[in-house]
Design goal:
Layout: H1 12-23, H2 30-58, H3 66-72, H4 74-84
Helix pairs in contact: 3-4
């Protein structure tokens, strides 16, 4: 997999925390640690989305026009419609 760089700024306390996590030996570098956190966040968000979709499929029908989906995006449009119920 091709890699690219992304520079981030952290307060000293977070930098020390990341370095401490790397020092445990579970990760070889701060980059590996951050990549793992991003993967976990992605998996968590996908699981939440899946749960939301299953709950929506079991709930009452929500109708959203294609124009609204194009204008706002699918998830924001569905969330707004669900709030209005």
């Amino acid at each position: 997999m091709a890699m690219t760089s992304l520079n981030i700024s952290l307060p000293e306390a977070l930098k020390e925390y990341v370095e401490g996590q790397v020092a445990t030996g579970d990760w070889g570098t701060p980059s590996e640690y951050v990549r793992e956190l991003i993967r976990q966040d992605k998996e968590r968000r996908l699981a939440t989305l899946e749960q939301d979709l299953v709950a929506a499929a079991k709930g009452p029908k929500i109708e959203v026009s294609m124009a609204e989906i194009r204008r706002r995006g699918l998830l924001p449009a569905l969330r707004e419609r669900a709030r209005r119920r």
